[in-house]
Amino acid sequence: MGSTHPDGRAGIDAALVKRLIAAQFPQWSDLPVTPVEVDGWDNRTYRLGDDMTVRLPTAAGYVPAVAKENEWLPRLAPSLPVAVPPVLAMGAPGEGYPFPWSVRGWLPGEPADPERIDDMSEFALSVAEFVLALQRCDAAGGPPGGEHSWHRGASPAYYDDETRRCLVELEGRVDTAAAAAVWDAALAAEWRGEPVWFHGDIASGNLLVVDGKLAAVIDFGTSGVGDPACDLVIAWTMFSGDSRRAFREAVGQDEGAWARARGWALWKAMLVLSGTRDPHQGAVNQRVIGEVLADHHQFA
Q1: Most C-beta atoms within 10 A of its C-beta, which of 82, 216, 217, 281?
Q2: pTM above the 0.90 mark?
Q3: 14-107: CATH architecture
Q4: Which residues of the chain register pLDDT less than 50?
Q5: For the domain bounded by 111-299, which CATH number is listed?
């Protein structure tokens, strides 16, 4: 991944967005540009007036998502049970900014923090409904999981070296023998199904709630067609107890998919845990690892 901006984010600000809009979409040049309250890392997002957003990749590795989302979101949207980002325009590099970018319709809602959700088990059913509806979408011609999706939709084996390194680094902090067994089981459960659509990053920040219920799913940058096991990770990162059971039963999937999902969850949680100095983030990922190991012990 590379960028003309050293930290991958510097140089993107409201003034740049104003210049890009004025140069390429002058019909919107009088609209105010303001940063969104909650932003991601892969892209910087700005409100454009009341009804639109401007989304700019922060580094070259996130650029393939722009054309992918612009092509596929309008095709997927009619078949999905909740809103997804409406694509309005695609911008070109300019004004010193080196990447393509996009203009989207604004979707109301707030990130799905637990305190905003009325009933977590009901919410889990809504997420499962979305996952299954996405899997039913026509996958013909869709982008196979690979580099553009950060290898979601493909085998978690792509991250084998990284995971083995984390196992060494986390010795004494997690049960690395049990974690290695989970990882080995994930690699052994090879996916042999027909490719289906997956989102690739179903997490609380990409799920919007209105009045306590799921209203929209955003950020399809890691989406594609392939193995949907990566979309099950939310079972441990957000759900627990009754809500996890509700999600597991509603979304179905065979035991191989769940084994690979545990591998995806374990890889990411160990990677973050090994690299963070934030006690809260460390505790969150310690919990995810513990729940994944317990799940493996119960179901494998």
Answers
A1: 217
A2: yes
A3: 2-Layer Sandwich (3.30)
A4: 1-8, 10
A5: 3.90.1200.10
